[in-house]
Amino acid sequence: MCAVKSPIPDNISEEYYQISAAILSSFPKYRPPVDLFRFRDDIAQLTPYSRKGQRLSNEQVEEVARLCDEGDLFVSRTDHPIYSQHIVKQLDLILVDRNLKESEVADICLRALALRFSDFADQPVRPVFETLYKDMMVFTEYLWQDRHRIKLFMRRLFREHTLAQHSLNTLAVGLWLFINSMGDGLKRRDLDRAALGFLLHDLGMARIPAFILSKTTPLKPEERDKIPLHPLSGIKTMHKLGLAFDEMRQAVLEHHERLDGSGYPQKLKGEQVSRIGRIAAVADSFSAMIAQRPHAPAKEPLVAAQELAADRNRYDTRYTSQLLTAFMTGAFSREGAATTALVLEAQPTRS
């Protein structure tokens, strides 16, 4: 929420949002979906300007833009649900808008990051990445202010499997494990880099043909052979963009490596697998297991955590046991597990 300029009365800041240009531009131009109010200096009060859904004339559209630029355009707190949906266009508002509930912030973050990720997966070029990176830094700043907020995202794990939703699930699970394992030694730079690595770990899957990802029948040998190549495809994209720092490289290349050497693409074994790689392996597998996929039904989170913890030869028990304990004790049960409906569809992922 923008700072309310003086001499606007204090009570107005409690009942109205001052609209930023970014939020206004996200509304339909001629039919804003909220009631609009203008501030009149002569009486120091807000007065109604237009009703939600009312068609504005060209002159009114120009006047609304001018009022916004001058800081004199507001929306009522009663339209908060609609307003909050549009903050995805300017995610850094979550850091200053004290009217937002934590559950609302989490939903807004998921919507924004899903859109940014999908855009980048479709067009993996530097300008598109910069937009994603900006929102990711808002997300990690939000977590840095209070690390316990990662639980908000663990309560919102998606149960349908698309590339964007799988990546967001892996981001949440991976960061929860990473933050717990780092304890007081966690540094902001580590958080930023780990978050980017976990979110983009499966980017190479965007290059796998959609018909392979959506098949409900067993893959043909030539189709199956394409799947193990996706970590190499992902890291190649990151290298082209100059983003192959350690955490990115480890998350992208090692999330399918297994401690017994049975994984791919490098057949790493034991201590050859990095800490980020071990966490990414658990987070990626868990996220795939709990979501409905074309070739496999979704498992309940507790069941998935139990199966991973039992697979001691392939997964690091330091992380699988943390995950299992959390679900056994109901650590993420508060507020339920409501998920955010995504605006954009993304490709399904076959893991």
TrEMBL record:
InterPro entries: HD/PDEase_dom, HD_GYP_dom. Residues 144-340 form the HD-GYP domain. Gene3D superfamilies: Hypothetical protein af1432. It comes from the Bacteria. GO terms for molecular function: hydrolase activity. It holds the Pfam family HD_5. SMART domains: HDc. Keywords: Hydrolase. This is Metal dependent phosphohydrolase.
